[in-house]
Design a protein that fits this description.
This protein is of the alpha/beta class and about 375 residues long. The chain is built from eleven helices and 15 strands. It has a nine-stranded mixed sheet. A six-stranded parallel sheet has the order 3-2-1-4-5-6, with helices on both faces.
Length: about 375
């Protein structure tokens, strides 16, 4: 595929998260935020004024027909990802697709097959892998700073909903509806980040998973999946990991974004790494701490605002199009993370340990309401 000198981007979906994408495109010297699209006319006008986009569309098909657009960033509810991405590729656009990409492995393969046929790049965007403390931690792990990595523990603290971003009722509604979200707002939507982080620090693939996911119903199509505890084993070695979600809805979490925070511990044969924040700033601690040989080293000077992960992630997409290379996540990486997510839901739904090889092309996440 031919590299581009300048990347003219259209954003499809102008909700909360799109503001971080837009800021990153506008800051990149080789990118231009050329067009935006949303069905909400008032939101679209507000975003036009905020971002200075030259073109605005209420119908994504009109944006895709714009021959001046090189690439699109798809930031829509999950159930729209497949159809819009297929249309974008057919229109000759490169695509950055927000996680989780689709609901099944078969649908994911369909998208990457379409990208290959169109000779266009497709990447699934998972921003946690670009968060500077996560990237530095992975760099240290791969350099042997903690010896052989043996365990990954992730903890998500969901706090008071009135703190942080004021999330619209429309955004809450589609995330709590499994028909549009694909699973639940915690273990499928946010969970994609955490399943990917489970894979980020350990070379061996995840092999088996077990999960408890407490699901509460708040309406005919409104479900919340938390608290939750997911555990897994890596293939061929006695290495394990866990992700715990605590729905501490009375807890104040200092955050400019979603009112939750994530902490990661990577335990090695000779040391331990702690990443102490991500979406928020729950505690006044250095963003990254390394312990080895009786010594503690704190990394105080790492950029640790969550928005930095969008700057780096958007930058990688633009740079890849300029350089003519595949940006992360490619088919293999996105497939591994999505398979893990689906397997965790299958484990919780059926109340048993699941081998990831059981997840077939049509296997979908499913939720079991507590007590059902």
């Amino acid at each position: 595929m031919e590299p581009l000198d300048q990347v003219r981007v259209g954003i499809i979906g102008c909700g909360q998260i799109a503001a971080l994408h837009a800021a990153a495109y506008r800051a990149h010297p080789r990118a231009e935020l050329a067009a935006i699209c949303d069905v909400d006319e008032a939101l679209l006008e507000r975003r036009r004024q905020e971002w200075g986009a030259a073109q605005v569309y209420r119908d994504y098909r009109l944006l895709l027909a714009d021959s001046g657009i090189d690439a699109v960033d798809v930031l829509l509810p999950h159930h729209l990802h497949r159809s819009v991405t297929l249309a974008a590729l057919a229109a000759g656009k490169h695509v950055s697709l927000q996680k989780p990409p689709v609901f099944t492995l078969g649908e994911l393969d369909e998208l990457f097959d379409a990208a290959g046929a169109a000779r266009r790049w497709l990447r699934v965007f998972e921003n946690f892998m670009y968060y500077p403390p996560h990237r530095k931690a992975r760099e240290l792990v791969m350099a042997g700073a903690i010896g052989e990595p043996l365990s990954v523990r992730i903890k998500t603290a969901a706090g008071r909903p009135q703190d942080g971003w004021a999330v619209s009722q429309r955004a809450l509604a589609w995330r709590m509806d499994p028909g549009s979200c694909g699973g639940g707002p915690t273990c499928f939507d946010h969970g994609y980040h955490c399943y990917n982080m489970a894979r980020f620090f350990v070379r061996e693939p995840v092999e088996r998973v077990h999960a408890w996911i407490h699901v509460s119903r708040f309406g005919d199509n409104a479900f919340y999946d938390g608290p939750a505890l997911v555990s897994w084993k890596y293939a061929g070695v006695p290495k394990y990991g866990s992700w715990e979600v605590v729905a501490s809805l009375g807890l104040r979490v200092r955050s400019r974004y979603y009112p939750s925070d994530d902490r990661i511990e990577v335990h090695g044969s000779e040391g331990i790494l702690w990443v102490n924040r991500c979406t928020g700033k729950l505690l006044e601690e250095p963003p990254l701490v390394l312990y080895r040989d009786g010594q503690t080293r704190a990394f105080h000077d790492l950029p640790s605002d969550w928005a930095e992960s969008f700057v780096a992630g958007v930058g990688d997409f633009v740079d890849a199009l300029v350089e003519g290379r595949q940006p992360a996540q490619d088919r293999e990486e996105a497939r591994a993370t999505l398979r893990f997510a689906i397997a965790a839901h299958l484990a919780a739904y059926e109340g048993r340990e699941v081998d990831l090889a059981e997840v077939g092309p049509e296997t979908r996440p499913r939720l079991r309401v507590d007590g059902a």
